[in-house]
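Handout for the seminar on molecular recognition.
Each group receives one record of this type.
Step one: identify the two inputs.
Step two: read the structure output and locate the region that could contact pyridoxal-5'-phosphate.
Step three: write two sentences on what you found, then compare them with the reference statements printed after the record.
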Amino acid sequence: MAALTRESCVALDRIDSLARFRERFNLPAGVIYLDGNSLGALGDDIPRRLAITIEREWGEGLIRSWNSAGWIDLPRKVAAKLAPLIGASPLDVAVSDSTSVNLFKLVIAGLRMRPGRRRVLSDASNFPTDLYIAGSAAKLLGAELEILAPEDLLRSLDADTAIVMLTQVDFKTGALHDLARITEAAHTRGALMLWDLSHSAGALPIDLAGADADFAVGCTYKYLNGGPGAPAFVYVAARLHAALESPLAGWMGHARPFDFEPAYAPASGIDRLLCGTPPVLSLAALDAALDLWAQVDLAEVRAKSVALSELFIALVEDRCAGFGLVLASPRRAAERGSQLSFRHAESYAIKQALIARGVIGDFRAPDLLRVGFTPLYLRYADIWDAVEALAGVLFSREWDAPAFRKREIVT
Ligand SMILES: *Cc1c(COP(=O)(O)O)cnc(C)c1O
Protein backbone atom coordinates (compact mmCIF):
# COMPACT_ATOMS: atom_id res chain seq x y z
CA MET A 1 0.00 0.00 0.00
CA ALA A 2 1.19 3.52 -0.78
CA ALA A 3 2.51 5.72 2.02
CA LEU A 4 -0.12 5.97 4.72
CA THR A 5 -1.12 9.53 5.27
CA ARG A 6 -4.50 11.13 5.69
CA GLU A 7 -3.88 12.92 2.39
CA SER A 8 -3.40 9.61 0.57
CA CYS A 9 -6.74 8.42 2.00
CA VAL A 10 -8.48 11.58 0.83
CA ALA A 11 -6.93 11.02 -2.59
CA LEU A 12 -8.40 7.50 -2.69
CA ASP A 13 -11.81 8.93 -1.84
CA ARG A 14 -11.53 11.35 -4.71
CA ILE A 15 -11.20 8.55 -7.29
CA ASP A 16 -13.62 6.12 -5.57
CA SER A 17 -16.40 5.05 -7.95
CA LEU A 18 -18.72 4.33 -4.99
CA ALA A 19 -18.19 7.71 -3.32
CA ARG A 20 -21.36 9.11 -4.89
CA PHE A 21 -23.54 6.79 -2.78
CA ARG A 22 -22.55 8.37 0.54
CA GLU A 23 -24.88 11.32 0.05
CA ARG A 24 -27.76 8.90 -0.35
CA PHE A 25 -27.58 8.20 3.40
CA ASN A 26 -28.55 10.32 6.38
CA LEU A 27 -25.48 9.97 8.55
CA PRO A 28 -25.18 11.90 11.81
CA ALA A 29 -22.51 14.58 11.88
CA GLY A 30 -19.39 13.74 13.80
CA VAL A 31 -19.91 9.99 13.63
CA ILE A 32 -17.80 7.37 11.88
CA TYR A 33 -20.06 4.37 11.58
CA LEU A 34 -18.30 1.01 11.63
CA ASP A 35 -21.36 -1.01 12.61
CA GLY A 36 -23.33 -1.17 9.36
CA ASN A 37 -22.82 -4.93 9.50
CA SER A 38 -25.17 -4.96 12.50
CA LEU A 39 -27.61 -2.21 11.61
CA GLY A 40 -27.23 -0.50 8.26
CA ALA A 41 -27.51 3.29 7.95
CA LEU A 42 -30.68 5.21 7.08
CA GLY A 43 -31.16 5.88 3.37
CA ASP A 44 -32.08 9.47 2.60
CA ASP A 45 -35.36 8.66 0.84
CA ILE A 46 -36.70 6.36 3.56
CA PRO A 47 -38.21 9.02 5.86
CA ARG A 48 -40.23 10.40 2.92
CA ARG A 49 -41.35 6.95 1.85
CA LEU A 50 -42.45 6.06 5.38
CA ALA A 51 -44.28 9.36 5.73
CA ILE A 52 -46.24 8.57 2.55
CA THR A 53 -46.98 5.04 3.71
CA ILE A 54 -48.13 6.21 7.11
CA GLU A 55 -49.98 9.42 6.34
CA ARG A 56 -51.40 8.81 2.89
CA GLU A 57 -51.67 5.04 2.58
CA TRP A 58 -52.56 4.19 6.17
CA GLY A 59 -54.09 7.47 7.30
CA GLU A 60 -56.22 8.19 4.27
CA GLY A 61 -56.36 4.94 2.33
CA LEU A 62 -57.02 2.83 5.41
CA ILE A 63 -57.83 -0.77 4.57
CA ARG A 64 -58.25 0.09 0.88
CA SER A 65 -54.46 0.44 0.68
CA TRP A 66 -53.96 -3.32 0.73
CA ASN A 67 -55.12 -3.12 -2.88
CA SER A 68 -54.81 0.52 -3.93
CA ALA A 69 -51.29 1.04 -2.51
CA GLY A 70 -50.18 -2.49 -3.37
CA TRP A 71 -49.47 -3.52 0.22
CA ILE A 72 -50.47 -7.10 -0.50
CA ASP A 73 -47.85 -7.31 -3.27
CA LEU A 74 -45.03 -5.79 -1.19
CA PRO A 75 -43.43 -9.07 -0.06
CA ARG A 76 -43.19 -10.25 -3.69
CA LYS A 77 -42.01 -6.85 -4.95
CA VAL A 78 -39.30 -6.65 -2.31
CA ALA A 79 -38.20 -10.25 -2.93
CA ALA A 80 -37.76 -9.46 -6.63
CA LYS A 81 -35.49 -6.50 -5.82
CA LEU A 82 -33.45 -8.56 -3.41
CA ALA A 83 -33.02 -11.71 -5.52
CA PRO A 84 -30.25 -10.43 -7.85
CA LEU A 85 -28.15 -9.46 -4.83
CA ILE A 86 -27.89 -13.12 -3.79
CA GLY A 87 -27.67 -14.66 -7.24
CA ALA A 88 -31.20 -16.01 -7.20
CA SER A 89 -34.28 -15.94 -9.39
CA PRO A 90 -37.05 -13.74 -7.93
CA LEU A 91 -39.26 -16.83 -7.99
CA ASP A 92 -36.97 -18.56 -5.49
CA VAL A 93 -36.95 -15.79 -2.85
CA ALA A 94 -39.57 -14.71 -0.32
CA VAL A 95 -39.38 -11.88 2.21
CA SER A 96 -41.06 -12.68 5.49
CA ASP A 97 -40.63 -12.93 9.26
CA SER A 98 -37.18 -12.93 10.86
CA THR A 99 -34.07 -14.90 9.98
CA SER A 100 -34.70 -17.03 13.08
CA VAL A 101 -38.24 -17.93 12.01
CA ASN A 102 -37.17 -18.66 8.44
CA LEU A 103 -34.43 -20.95 9.71
CA PHE A 104 -37.06 -22.87 11.63
CA LYS A 105 -39.18 -23.32 8.50
CA LEU A 106 -36.23 -24.55 6.46
CA VAL A 107 -34.77 -26.95 9.00
CA ILE A 108 -38.15 -28.63 9.41
CA ALA A 109 -38.82 -28.62 5.65
CA GLY A 110 -35.34 -29.97 4.94
CA LEU A 111 -35.63 -32.80 7.45
CA ARG A 112 -38.92 -33.81 5.86
CA MET A 113 -37.23 -33.87 2.45
CA ARG A 114 -34.64 -36.31 3.78
CA PRO A 115 -36.74 -38.89 5.63
CA GLY A 116 -34.66 -41.39 7.54
CA ARG A 117 -31.72 -39.02 7.95
CA ARG A 118 -31.38 -37.70 11.49
CA ARG A 119 -28.38 -35.38 11.58
CA VAL A 120 -28.26 -31.61 11.16
CA LEU A 121 -24.69 -30.33 11.17
CA SER A 122 -23.44 -26.87 11.99
CA ASP A 123 -20.29 -25.26 13.29
CA ALA A 124 -19.63 -24.05 16.79
CA SER A 125 -18.98 -20.48 15.72
CA ASN A 126 -22.33 -20.11 14.01
CA PHE A 127 -24.63 -17.35 15.23
CA PRO A 128 -26.37 -18.54 18.40
CA THR A 129 -29.93 -18.09 17.14
CA ASP A 130 -29.12 -20.38 14.21
CA LEU A 131 -27.95 -23.08 16.59
CA TYR A 132 -30.84 -22.63 19.03
CA ILE A 133 -33.44 -22.74 16.27
CA ALA A 134 -31.92 -25.69 14.42
CA GLY A 135 -31.59 -27.58 17.70
CA SER A 136 -35.19 -27.04 18.66
CA ALA A 137 -36.51 -27.73 15.15
CA ALA A 138 -34.51 -30.95 14.86
CA LYS A 139 -35.78 -32.09 18.24
CA LEU A 140 -39.40 -31.74 17.09
CA LEU A 141 -38.77 -34.31 14.37
CA GLY A 142 -36.63 -36.69 16.43
CA ALA A 143 -33.47 -35.50 14.70
CA GLU A 144 -30.44 -33.93 16.28
CA LEU A 145 -28.27 -30.87 15.78
CA GLU A 146 -24.56 -31.61 15.99
CA ILE A 147 -22.32 -28.63 16.61
CA LEU A 148 -18.84 -29.33 15.29
CA ALA A 149 -15.57 -27.49 14.92
CA PRO A 150 -15.50 -25.90 11.44
CA GLU A 151 -12.60 -28.07 10.31
CA ASP A 152 -14.46 -31.27 11.27
CA LEU A 153 -17.69 -30.43 9.51
CA LEU A 154 -17.12 -31.80 6.02
CA ARG A 155 -15.34 -34.89 7.32
CA SER A 156 -18.36 -35.69 9.44
CA LEU A 157 -20.82 -35.79 6.51
CA ASP A 158 -22.43 -39.17 6.12
CA ALA A 159 -25.53 -40.96 4.81
CA ASP A 160 -27.42 -39.95 7.97
CA THR A 161 -26.83 -36.20 7.39
CA ALA A 162 -29.98 -34.39 6.30
CA ILE A 163 -28.83 -30.75 6.44
CA VAL A 164 -25.59 -28.83 6.70
CA MET A 165 -26.25 -25.34 8.04
CA LEU A 166 -23.60 -22.63 7.94
CA THR A 167 -23.33 -18.86 8.04
CA GLN A 168 -21.26 -17.76 5.06
CA VAL A 169 -19.44 -15.03 7.00
CA ASP A 170 -18.71 -15.77 10.64
CA PHE A 171 -20.30 -13.03 12.74
CA LYS A 172 -17.45 -12.92 15.22
CA THR A 173 -14.27 -13.29 13.18
CA GLY A 174 -15.52 -12.38 9.72
CA ALA A 175 -14.14 -15.66 8.31
CA LEU A 176 -15.66 -16.42 4.90
CA HIS A 177 -16.76 -19.94 3.95
CA ASP A 178 -16.47 -21.19 0.37
CA LEU A 179 -20.14 -21.37 -0.53
CA ALA A 180 -19.79 -23.33 -3.77
CA ARG A 181 -17.27 -25.86 -2.48
CA ILE A 182 -19.12 -26.67 0.75
CA THR A 183 -22.47 -26.89 -1.04
CA GLU A 184 -20.97 -29.40 -3.43
CA ALA A 185 -19.47 -31.43 -0.59
CA ALA A 186 -22.86 -31.60 1.15
CA HIS A 187 -24.53 -32.68 -2.08
CA THR A 188 -22.07 -35.51 -2.72
CA ARG A 189 -23.36 -37.09 0.51
CA GLY A 190 -26.98 -36.39 -0.35
CA ALA A 191 -27.39 -33.68 2.29
CA LEU A 192 -29.18 -30.36 1.82
CA MET A 193 -27.15 -27.16 2.21
CA LEU A 194 -28.63 -24.27 4.18
CA TRP A 195 -26.74 -20.97 4.08
CA ASP A 196 -27.25 -18.01 6.37
CA LEU A 197 -26.24 -14.93 4.38
CA SER A 198 -26.90 -12.38 7.14
CA HIS A 199 -23.34 -11.08 7.07
CA SER A 200 -22.75 -11.44 3.34
CA ALA A 201 -25.85 -10.13 1.54
CA GLY A 202 -24.93 -6.64 0.37
CA ALA A 203 -21.29 -7.12 1.35
CA LEU A 204 -20.04 -9.33 -1.47
CA PRO A 205 -21.26 -10.99 -4.67
CA ILE A 206 -23.22 -14.17 -3.96
CA ASP A 207 -24.25 -16.77 -6.50
CA LEU A 208 -26.76 -19.13 -4.87
CA ALA A 209 -28.04 -20.47 -8.19
CA GLY A 210 -24.53 -20.95 -9.58
CA ALA A 211 -23.56 -22.93 -6.49
CA ASP A 212 -26.80 -24.95 -6.73
CA ALA A 213 -27.49 -24.16 -3.06
CA ASP A 214 -30.66 -25.66 -1.64
CA PHE A 215 -31.69 -23.20 1.05
CA ALA A 216 -30.67 -19.77 2.29
CA VAL A 217 -31.85 -17.17 4.76
CA GLY A 218 -30.56 -13.76 5.76
CA CYS A 219 -31.17 -10.44 7.45
CA THR A 220 -32.01 -7.29 5.52
CA TYR A 221 -31.22 -4.81 8.29
CA LYS A 222 -27.44 -5.27 8.14
CA TYR A 223 -25.55 -4.46 4.90
CA LEU A 224 -28.83 -4.05 2.99
CA ASN A 225 -29.92 -1.13 5.22
CA GLY A 226 -33.57 -2.20 5.52
CA GLY A 227 -34.04 -0.73 9.01
CA PRO A 228 -34.22 -2.17 12.54
CA GLY A 229 -36.03 -5.51 12.54
CA ALA A 230 -36.74 -5.39 8.79
CA PRO A 231 -38.19 -8.69 7.54
CA ALA A 232 -35.73 -11.36 6.47
CA PHE A 233 -35.37 -13.25 3.21
CA VAL A 234 -35.63 -16.95 2.54
CA TYR A 235 -34.45 -18.80 -0.58
CA VAL A 236 -35.31 -22.28 -1.78
CA ALA A 237 -34.00 -23.72 -5.07
CA ALA A 238 -36.79 -24.15 -7.62
CA ARG A 239 -36.14 -27.90 -7.91
CA LEU A 240 -37.27 -28.27 -4.26
CA HIS A 241 -40.46 -26.21 -4.40
CA ALA A 242 -42.78 -29.11 -5.12
CA ALA A 243 -41.61 -30.95 -2.02
CA LEU A 244 -41.45 -27.82 0.13
CA GLU A 245 -43.76 -27.93 3.12
CA SER A 246 -43.83 -25.07 5.61
CA PRO A 247 -44.30 -26.05 9.25
CA LEU A 248 -45.91 -22.64 9.76
CA ALA A 249 -48.83 -22.91 7.36
CA GLY A 250 -50.13 -19.38 7.74
CA TRP A 251 -52.84 -17.92 5.59
CA MET A 252 -50.47 -15.72 3.57
CA GLY A 253 -48.77 -18.91 2.34
CA HIS A 254 -52.11 -20.29 1.17
CA ALA A 255 -52.85 -20.57 -2.54
CA ARG A 256 -56.01 -18.44 -2.10
CA PRO A 257 -55.88 -16.61 1.24
CA PHE A 258 -58.99 -14.58 0.56
CA ASP A 259 -61.17 -17.60 -0.18
CA PHE A 260 -60.97 -18.24 3.58
CA GLU A 261 -61.13 -21.98 3.10
CA PRO A 262 -60.85 -24.11 6.24
CA ALA A 263 -58.44 -26.50 4.51
CA TYR A 264 -54.85 -25.47 3.83
CA ALA A 265 -53.60 -25.49 0.24
CA PRO A 266 -50.06 -24.16 -0.20
CA ALA A 267 -49.26 -21.44 -2.72
CA SER A 268 -47.55 -22.90 -5.75
CA GLY A 269 -43.96 -21.75 -5.26
CA ILE A 270 -41.75 -20.07 -2.67
CA ASP A 271 -44.69 -17.95 -1.43
CA ARG A 272 -45.88 -20.93 0.57
CA LEU A 273 -43.18 -19.88 3.07
CA LEU A 274 -45.07 -16.68 3.82
CA CYS A 275 -46.93 -16.93 7.08
CA GLY A 276 -48.93 -14.07 8.59
CA THR A 277 -49.85 -10.52 7.58
CA PRO A 278 -46.78 -8.73 6.19
CA PRO A 279 -45.28 -5.87 8.27
CA VAL A 280 -46.11 -3.08 5.85
CA LEU A 281 -44.15 -0.27 7.52
CA SER A 282 -40.97 -2.33 7.71
CA LEU A 283 -41.46 -3.61 4.18
CA ALA A 284 -41.93 -0.08 2.86
CA ALA A 285 -38.62 0.97 4.42
CA LEU A 286 -36.88 -2.11 3.01
CA ASP A 287 -38.44 -1.54 -0.41
CA ALA A 288 -37.04 1.99 -0.49
CA ALA A 289 -33.65 0.83 0.81
CA LEU A 290 -33.34 -1.75 -1.96
CA ASP A 291 -33.88 0.80 -4.76
CA LEU A 292 -30.35 2.04 -4.25
CA TRP A 293 -28.91 -1.44 -4.78
CA ALA A 294 -30.16 -1.60 -8.36
CA GLN A 295 -27.39 0.89 -9.19
CA VAL A 296 -24.67 -0.85 -7.20
CA ASP A 297 -22.06 -3.23 -8.60
CA LEU A 298 -21.34 -5.77 -5.85
CA ALA A 299 -17.91 -6.50 -7.32
CA GLU A 300 -17.03 -2.85 -6.70
CA VAL A 301 -18.46 -3.09 -3.19
CA ARG A 302 -16.30 -6.13 -2.51
CA ALA A 303 -13.16 -4.50 -3.91
CA LYS A 304 -13.63 -1.40 -1.75
CA SER A 305 -14.49 -3.48 1.29
CA VAL A 306 -11.20 -5.34 0.90
CA ALA A 307 -9.31 -2.07 0.42
CA LEU A 308 -10.91 -0.46 3.50
CA SER A 309 -10.22 -3.46 5.71
CA GLU A 310 -6.64 -3.82 4.48
CA LEU A 311 -6.15 -0.13 5.22
CA PHE A 312 -7.61 -0.59 8.70
CA ILE A 313 -5.24 -3.48 9.48
CA ALA A 314 -2.22 -1.61 8.14
CA LEU A 315 -3.06 1.48 10.18
CA VAL A 316 -3.67 -0.54 13.37
CA GLU A 317 -0.36 -2.32 12.91
CA ASP A 318 1.34 1.01 12.34
CA ARG A 319 -0.33 3.21 14.95
CA CYS A 320 -1.65 0.88 17.66
CA ALA A 321 1.32 -1.46 17.99
CA GLY A 322 2.21 -2.45 21.54
CA PHE A 323 -1.27 -2.02 23.01
CA GLY A 324 -2.27 -5.67 22.87
CA LEU A 325 -4.75 -5.65 19.99
CA VAL A 326 -4.60 -9.01 18.19
CA LEU A 327 -6.28 -9.57 14.84
CA ALA A 328 -8.86 -12.34 15.29
CA SER A 329 -9.93 -12.34 11.63
CA PRO A 330 -8.16 -14.21 8.84
CA ARG A 331 -5.16 -12.18 7.66
CA ARG A 332 -5.87 -12.94 4.00
CA ALA A 333 -8.59 -10.68 2.59
CA ALA A 334 -9.93 -13.47 0.35
CA GLU A 335 -10.81 -15.44 3.50
CA ARG A 336 -12.82 -12.65 5.13
CA GLY A 337 -16.20 -11.03 4.74
CA SER A 338 -16.58 -7.29 5.30
CA GLN A 339 -15.64 -7.02 8.94
CA LEU A 340 -12.63 -7.30 11.22
CA SER A 341 -12.31 -8.36 14.81
CA PHE A 342 -9.52 -7.73 17.24
CA ARG A 343 -9.02 -9.46 20.55
CA HIS A 344 -8.27 -7.35 23.61
CA ALA A 345 -9.05 -8.01 27.27
CA GLU A 346 -10.62 -4.54 27.50
CA SER A 347 -12.50 -4.63 24.21
CA TYR A 348 -15.80 -3.60 25.76
CA ALA A 349 -14.41 -0.49 27.47
CA ILE A 350 -12.37 0.40 24.38
CA LYS A 351 -15.49 0.17 22.25
CA GLN A 352 -17.37 2.47 24.67
CA ALA A 353 -14.50 4.97 24.73
CA LEU A 354 -14.44 4.96 20.92
CA ILE A 355 -18.17 5.69 20.80
CA ALA A 356 -17.56 8.67 23.08
CA ARG A 357 -15.19 9.91 20.36
CA GLY A 358 -17.85 9.36 17.68
CA VAL A 359 -16.48 6.10 16.30
CA ILE A 360 -19.15 3.41 16.47
CA GLY A 361 -18.04 -0.21 16.31
CA ASP A 362 -19.25 -3.06 18.47
CA PHE A 363 -18.22 -5.67 20.98
CA ARG A 364 -18.78 -9.40 20.80
CA ALA A 365 -18.27 -11.47 23.93
CA PRO A 366 -15.93 -12.43 25.36
CA ASP A 367 -13.19 -10.13 24.10
CA LEU A 368 -13.73 -9.00 20.51
CA LEU A 369 -13.72 -5.44 19.21
CA ARG A 370 -15.54 -5.65 15.89
CA VAL A 371 -15.62 -3.17 13.03
CA GLY A 372 -17.68 -3.50 9.88
CA PHE A 373 -16.99 -1.96 6.47
CA THR A 374 -19.89 -0.66 4.42
CA PRO A 375 -18.39 0.69 1.19
CA LEU A 376 -21.49 2.64 0.15
CA TYR A 377 -21.10 5.18 2.92
CA LEU A 378 -17.61 4.77 4.38
CA ARG A 379 -14.65 6.76 3.12
CA TYR A 380 -10.98 5.90 3.22
CA ALA A 381 -10.47 9.06 5.29
CA ASP A 382 -13.01 7.70 7.80
CA ILE A 383 -10.78 4.66 8.29
CA TRP A 384 -7.83 6.94 8.91
CA ASP A 385 -9.80 8.98 11.45
CA ALA A 386 -11.21 5.88 13.15
CA VAL A 387 -7.77 4.37 13.71
CA GLU A 388 -6.49 7.75 14.92
CA ALA A 389 -9.28 7.69 17.51
CA LEU A 390 -8.46 4.10 18.44
CA ALA A 391 -4.78 4.93 18.86
CA GLY A 392 -5.78 7.92 20.98
CA VAL A 393 -8.04 5.83 23.22
CA LEU A 394 -5.30 3.22 23.72
CA PHE A 395 -2.47 5.69 24.24
CA SER A 396 -4.37 7.83 26.75
CA ARG A 397 -6.04 4.80 28.43
CA GLU A 398 -9.30 6.71 28.08
CA TRP A 399 -11.10 3.37 28.17
CA ASP A 400 -10.02 2.82 31.77
CA ALA A 401 -12.99 4.61 33.32
CA PRO A 402 -15.97 3.17 35.20
CA ALA A 403 -18.44 4.75 32.77
CA PHE A 404 -16.93 2.79 29.87
CA ARG A 405 -16.95 -0.54 31.71
CA LYS A 406 -20.63 -0.55 32.56
CA ARG A 407 -22.28 -3.15 30.33
CA GLU A 408 -25.44 -2.18 28.51
CA ILE A 409 -28.01 -4.75 27.42
CA VAL A 410 -27.20 -4.54 23.73
CA THR A 411 -23.47 -4.67 23.14
C1 LIG B 1 -27.93 -11.04 12.65
C2 LIG B 1 -28.03 -12.51 12.49
C3 LIG B 1 -29.19 -13.20 12.85
C4 LIG B 1 -30.33 -12.49 13.50
O1 LIG B 1 -31.52 -13.17 13.32
P1 LIG B 1 -32.91 -12.47 13.72
O2 LIG B 1 -33.89 -13.54 13.62
O3 LIG B 1 -33.09 -11.34 12.75
O4 LIG B 1 -32.75 -11.92 15.08
C5 LIG B 1 -29.23 -14.56 12.62
N1 LIG B 1 -28.18 -15.23 12.09
C6 LIG B 1 -27.05 -14.59 11.74
C7 LIG B 1 -25.91 -15.35 11.15
C8 LIG B 1 -26.93 -13.22 11.94
O5 LIG B 1 -25.79 -12.59 11.62
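Reference statements: The two ends are 33 Å apart (CA to CA). DSSP finds twelve helices and 13 strands in the chain.
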